[in-house]
Amino acid sequence: MNRLRLFLLVTRARTLPVMVSPVVIGALLAWQQNYRFSWGLFALTLVGALAAHLGANVLNDVFDFGSGVDQAAYEITTQGQTVVTGSRFLLNNQVSMTSYRWLALVCFAVALLCGVLLTIFRPLALAFGAAGFLLAFFYVAPPLRLAYIGRGLGELDILISFGILPLVGSYYVQSGTVTWTSILASLPIGLYTMAVLYFHHFLHWRSDKTAGKITPVVALGERGARIAGSLILLLIALGFIADAFLPVYPWYSIIAALTVLPTQLRLQRATSDLKFYQQLMATNFNGDLQAALLLTLALLIRGFAHI
Fold first, then answer.
1. Rounded CA gap, 288 and 17, in Å?
2. Is the pLDDT of residue 67 over 70?
3. Which of 247, 265, 277, 279 ranks highest by number of CB atoms within 10 Å?
4. Helix 274-305 / helix 180-200 crossing angle, nearest 10 deg
5. Given this model, what pLDDT does residue 210 score?
6. Is the pLDDT of residue 43 over 70?
């Protein structure tokens, strides 16, 4: 396996679109409100956010492996009850723990460098990055371990770190200010990304339970967690509708609310089969990307209409 491919797999780079979306939308929201768009500042924001995201992915695997969650998942994979989704390269000794730690450090160092450079132009930029790092770190690290305490705290962490902070931060970098409009714009985006993680829990909730990781699925049980998932999707749709009417986004962006329907329909035909949950997660991930694309197009249309 070549080094680039190994890097992309270890850092789970396939998840990067969920960070690209809020950064792009935040910058476009500022631009269509007649703030001058800076490609240089946008590039620094995007690179910093993506580096932090990759670092968080690696850090998550380090602590999940250290706590025994991934080992527990590996032990019961043969029973067809769970899927190992984390540190498989640590499990098969293909990559060392030391390498994982260095990789996380390098990713966060790149993010820090971008934050320092942005601070030259936007004094609060580094504060957004620092808040994001702390949320990523204490998501799995002691003493807080929000994902392990669970009961929704991990989901709240994701809402903030993958929705509010990157979108509002990107908006701030372009505009030099933080507004209620940018905060309201970030909520359905953050909830959608939170839903991606939420449905991911179904793949390995049994091993999480064995290791003492109290995810919502562990706390509520499969049926209760599916009902809660349906409510989260409804909340996302209502968020897009509210933002279209306020109007935070253009009125025609209301179509983004429809992207939750395929996932909702799948939930109505729910089973406990792992393949079903993998399909459910993929459907929700695609819906997240479709909604982001629709909002991006809506902002571009409104922005060019004002030129």
1. 9
2. no
3. 277
4. 160
5. 78
6. yes
Whether pTM > 0.90 for this model: the answer is yes
Q: C-alpha distances in angstroms, 46 versus 71, 120, 163?
A: 34, 16, 14
CA distance 51 to 107: 5
| φ, ψ (nearest 5 deg) of residue 150 | 65, -140
For residue 71, what pLDDT band results from cuts at 50, 70 and 90? Answer: low
Task: Take residue 243 and report the two structure tokens written for it.
Answer: 């933002």
Question: How far apart are alpha carbons 131 and 115 in whole angstroms?
Answer: 12
How far CA 17 is from CA of 104, 111, 124, 193, 264, in Å, comes to: 19, 17, 25, 10, 22
**Which residues lie closer than 8 Å to 206 by C-beta, 6 or more apart?**
76, 81, 82
Write the CB contacts of 232 (distance below 8 Å, at least 6 apart in sequence).
Answer: 191, 194, 195, 198
Among 194, 180, 278, which Cα is nearest to 235's?
194
Question: CATH 1.10.600: does it fit domain 18-299?
Answer: yes
Characterise 93 by phi-psi region: left (phi > 0), alpha (psi -120 to 50), beta (else).
left
Task: Report the amino acid identity of residue 152.
Answer: G
Q: Look up residue 121 and give its amino acid.
A: F
**Amino acid (1-letter code) at residue 254:** I
